[in-house]
Amino acid sequence: MKKILVTGGAGYIGSHAVVELAQAGYEPIIVDDFSNSKQSVLAGLRDILGHDVPCHDIDCGDADALRGVLKQEGTVAGVIHFAAFKAVGESVQKPLAYFHNNLGSLITLLTVMKEQGIENLVFSSSCTVYGVPDQLPVTEATPTKPASSPYGRTKQMCEDIIHDTAAAPEAGLRAILLRYFNPIGAHPSAKIGELPLGVPNNLVPFITQTAAGLREKLTVFGDDYDTPDGTNVRDYIYVEDLAKAHVVAVRRLLEKKASEAVETFNVGTGHGNTVLEVVKTFEAASGQKLNYSIGPRRAGDVPAIYADATKAAEVLGFKTETSLHDALASAWKWQQALGEAKA
């Protein structure tokens, strides 16, 4: 059974990827410092999989700690790198923290991977690398424009670092960059899901917390964009579908099927929904009436972006399977489970 190191594996997307890796016959090894996740996730993973997942509570920006993990675990076939700060708004307020953490952890990881002879990397990138695109949908060939936030710039820079590292003589690195759109929802078991610490930065957990009475109301940031109803348009992908894309990418690297040292794929549904469409669909999926109001635009937000998912379908054989309605229903089920857990 091949071991896959998963940095940020106790986080939202990472924990779902851990489940899919384990169910696909791999042995995931979690590295997470729990700066933006909770230890309770490990219990959720145990409930789903029926066994504990090895977890090392370290910062993957700490080279010596990372070396210690690899010495303890033995041969690792590949790495999925999720660990990063990821809030667009916060990055505008704290740019240096984002550059230090997101670039530093990747550089440390690549350095240690080279030392240990680990060649395969799946990198958690983002559609923010496209900036404000001239045309929609965006393909992998869409030019990257200046990012709208420091967070987006860190993802652009991380992609550049990976390309340059793979192009260096005797690099020994093969990588797949997965450019996510907007992950939503929770595992069908409601044992793991999005678990923001403090006030949520993402739309769906703010919606579910508002519906549960934990937040007074949802603020929709702007209704004067050039979109069908004036609110932001995003491509919302069910987190379990997104997690499965990582298994496909890992398998492609391990089977040496990649056509070049670094491959890039959009991972989205291929269509966009406005914020208000998400609100209305949530109300239909949950039976809850949502208290929301329109507020000013939020710094760093792109008006509209959604994927052309053709390349992932044709090259990886990956397509999303879950509707917006069903993804939002899973998010509400997760929120309800959290409420019961608190009680």
Automatic annotation (TrEMBL):
InterPro entries: Epimerase_deHydtase, NAD(P)-bd_dom_sf, UDP_G4E. GO terms for biological process: galactose metabolic process. It catalyses: UDP-alpha-D-glucose = UDP-alpha-D-galactose. GO terms for molecular function: UDP-glucose 4-epimerase activity. Gene3D superfamilies: NAD(P)-binding Rossmann-like Domain, UDP-galactose 4-epimerase, domain 1. Residues 4-268 form the NAD-dependent epimerase/dehydratase domain. Its cofactor is NAD(+). Keywords: Carbohydrate metabolism, Galactose metabolism, Isomerase, NAD. One of its GO terms (cellular component) is cytosol. Pathway: Carbohydrate metabolism; galactose metabolism. Its EC number is 5.1.3.2. Belongs to the NAD(P)-dependent epimerase/dehydratase family. Homodimer. This is UDP-glucose 4-epimerase. It comes from Hymenobacter polaris. The gene is galE.
